[in-house]
């Protein structure tokens, strides 16, 4: 199994890196072709579509027969048999940043077995940074091992988060943010959930939470955070309802309690 995870990690890195190169070289022309998805503020560009097509083609060559779940084209193939590998792909996580020329967008490619991520890569087209992990094998940024922060005091905790595209969900989220801001060091919002999770793994922020994400947003990044020693909760796995949560171990309990107490949407 270790050998398989290493192989899947290498495939994820290779495919995500190729897609990241395509995303970057096509950025200027691609961003002119913008459509919207769940709401008027939820964009999809030709870059998203081209990158997902490339990922699907490369995975079909390197891992023939593995089903692929992608943000733009949904589930391909007939679904995975028990114990088989499924690929979960976000061709551009942080599409709004991509659209505006802000550098925080990423290609996220994860391999899951029975719904659990076993290997993944997050590649940043603008900087070329490569984040990756295999379950039980640790996480790295450009081959340097990652470690979550040693934060231990809630009031000194730097927390990343993100907001839904739907305005009614945002209205609920503002109450949680207002409460949090009075009890922690500060909030960061990069605009890429995959990168937020990687940043927890690197200790660049102490924690991250968000509600309403899709599997392609968190599949690779959550493993990278977990393998770097962060405490990770995925949707449907605990008291945080449908939230994704990743935290330095020293502040995970008080932060989780604060989020529940603040009425994080989807928790009660
Ligand atoms: C979005 C980003 C953002 C998060 C949103 C996601 P997309 O993904 O990850 O940070 O706050 O909830 O939908 O649309 O750029 O792939």
Automatic annotation (TrEMBL):
<dbReference type="GO" id="GO:0006020">
    <property type="term" value="P:inositol metabolic process"/>
</dbReference>
<keyword id="KW-0479">Metal-binding</keyword>
<dbReference type="InterPro" id="IPR033942">
    <property type="entry name" value="IMPase"/>
</dbReference>
<dbReference type="Pfam" id="PF00459">
    <property type="entry name" value="Inositol_P"/>
</dbReference>
<dbReference type="InterPro" id="IPR020583">
    <property type="entry name" value="Inositol_monoP_metal-BS"/>
</dbReference>
<dbReference type="InterPro" id="IPR000760">
    <property type="entry name" value="Inositol_monophosphatase-like"/>
</dbReference>
<feature type="binding site">
    <location>
        <position position="217"/>
    </location>
    <ligand>
        <name>Mg(2+) 1</name>
    </ligand>
</feature>
<keyword id="KW-0378">Hydrolase</keyword>
<feature type="binding site">
    <location>
        <position position="93"/>
    </location>
    <ligand>
        <name>Mg(2+) 2</name>
    </ligand>
</feature>
<feature type="binding site">
    <location>
        <position position="92"/>
    </location>
    <ligand>
        <name>Mg(2+) 1</name>
    </ligand>
</feature>
<feature type="binding site">
    <location>
        <position position="90"/>
    </location>
    <ligand>
        <name>Mg(2+) 2</name>
    </ligand>
</feature>
<comment type="similarity">
    <text>Belongs to the inositol monophosphatase superfamily.</text>
</comment>
<protein>
    <recommendedName>
        <fullName>Inositol-1-monophosphatase</fullName>
        <ecNumber>3.1.3.25</ecNumber>
    </recommendedName>
</protein>
<keyword id="KW-0460">Magnesium</keyword>
<feature type="binding site">
    <location>
        <position position="71"/>
    </location>
    <ligand>
        <name>Mg(2+) 1</name>
    </ligand>
</feature>
<dbReference type="GO" id="GO:0008934">
    <property type="term" value="F:inositol monophosphate 1-phosphatase activity"/>
</dbReference>
<dbReference type="InterPro" id="IPR020550">
    <property type="entry name" value="Inositol_monophosphatase_CS"/>
</dbReference>
<dbReference type="GO" id="GO:0046872">
    <property type="term" value="F:metal ion binding"/>
</dbReference>
<dbReference type="GO" id="GO:0046854">
    <property type="term" value="P:phosphatidylinositol phosphate biosynthetic process"/>
</dbReference>
<dbReference type="GO" id="GO:0007165">
    <property type="term" value="P:signal transduction"/>
</dbReference>
């Amino acid at each position: 199994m270790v050998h398989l995870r290493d192989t899947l990690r290498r495939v994820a890195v290779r495919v995500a890196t190729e897609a990241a190169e395509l995303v970057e070289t096509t950025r200027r022309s691609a961003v002119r072709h913008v459509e919207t998805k769940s709401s008027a503020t939820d964009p999809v560009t030709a870059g998203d579509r081209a990158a997902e097509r490339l990922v699907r083609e490369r995975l079909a060559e390197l891992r023939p027969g593995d089903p692929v779940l992608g943000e733009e084209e949904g589930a391909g193939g007939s679904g995975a048999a028990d114990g088989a590998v499924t690929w979960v792909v976000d061709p551009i996580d942080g599409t709004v940043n991509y659209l505006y020329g802000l550098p925080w967008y990423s290609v996220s490619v994860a391999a899951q077995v029975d719904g659990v991520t076993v290997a993944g890569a997050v590649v940043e087209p603008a900087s070329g940074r490569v984040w990756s992990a295999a379950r039980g094998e640790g996480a790295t940024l450009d081959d340097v091992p990652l470690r979550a922060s040693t934060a231990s005091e809630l009031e000194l905790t730097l927390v990343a988060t993100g907001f839904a595209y739907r305005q009614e969900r945002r209205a609920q989220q503002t109450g949680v943010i207002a409460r949090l801001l009075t009890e922690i060091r500060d909030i960061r919002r990069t605009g890429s959930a995959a990168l937020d999770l990687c940043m927890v793994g690197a200790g660049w922020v102490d924690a991250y939470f968000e509600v309403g994400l899709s599997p392609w947003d968190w599949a690779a990044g959550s493993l990278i955070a977990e393998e770097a020693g962060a405490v990770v909760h995925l949707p449907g796995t605990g008291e945080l309802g449908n939230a994704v949560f990743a935290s330095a171990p020293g502040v995970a309990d008080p932060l989780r309690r604060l989020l529940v107490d603040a009425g994080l949407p989807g928790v009660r």
